[in-house]
Amino acid sequence: MKRIDVTFTAHELAHYDVDETGVIVVDILRASTTVIAALAAGASAIYPVSTPTAARRLKNAQAILIGGERGGYRLSGFDFGNSPGEYVPKRVADRLIILTSTNGTRAFLSASRAPEAVVGAYTNFTRTVEWMRDCSLDRIVISCAGSQSGASIAPEDVLFAGHLVEHLGDDWRRTPAAEIAKGYAQNKGHCLTDLLFNLPAGKRLSAMGLDDDVCWAGQWDRDEMLPTIRTLPGQTSGFDVLINAFENPEITS
To answer: Is the domain 2-244 a CATH 3.90.1560.10 member?
Structure first.
C-alpha cells in the first residue's frame, strides 16, 4: 500500500527525508500556478533560485528572462512578477525563465533532492492525481510552500493537499498530517474561487489589485501541464535545479 504524507511549509520540507519519496510542491498563490502557466505558454524551462541577487546575476550572464516577487510585488528590474497571466506565449515561448519568489522557490529547491518531484496546482489537478497513482515510488509527500518565507502555513496550500488526498481514496495509507489536510478540505467544500478570495493570501492579493491571479489559481484543470523538478548534475553556471516538462535545454556556463 502506498503512503501519502503532507508537509505544511517549505521549512518543513527542507528537513524531510525525501529518499525513495515522490514530492509534489504546491504554492497555489502563486508560484506553482505561475510555473504551470509559463510552461503551458511555451516556456522551455524555469530555473528557481533563492534570491533576487542570484536571479539578476544569472540574467546578466545569460541574457535570460527573470520573474519573481517579494511580498507579492514584482522586483525592480525583473521582466515579470509572479502573476500567471503575465506569462503569455508571445513573451515566453521557447524562452528560459529564472524565477525567485518568497515561498515557492524555496520548496522547489528542496524538492529537487527527491528522486521524483513535480509541481501541482488546481490548474493541473487531474494530471497531478494521475501522476500520484502512476508513480513507481511507494511514498509520496505533498509539500505545501507555506507563507512568511516558508515558515508559516498557507491555508490554500493545505486546501489543495486535502483535495488531492480526498481523490486518492482508501487504498492509500494516510499519515496524520494527510488526515488533517483531508479534513480541512472536506470542511471547506469545493467552491474554490470564493474560498481563495476569503483566505488571507487571497484577500491580500485582492487588496493589491491582483484579483485576476486569484481567479486564475481557482480554475480546476485549466492545463494538462505537469512540470517536473530535478537537479542538474555537473552544472557550473548557477542553473542547478530545472523545472521543465520536456527535454533539458542546453545551458552554457
So the answer is: yes
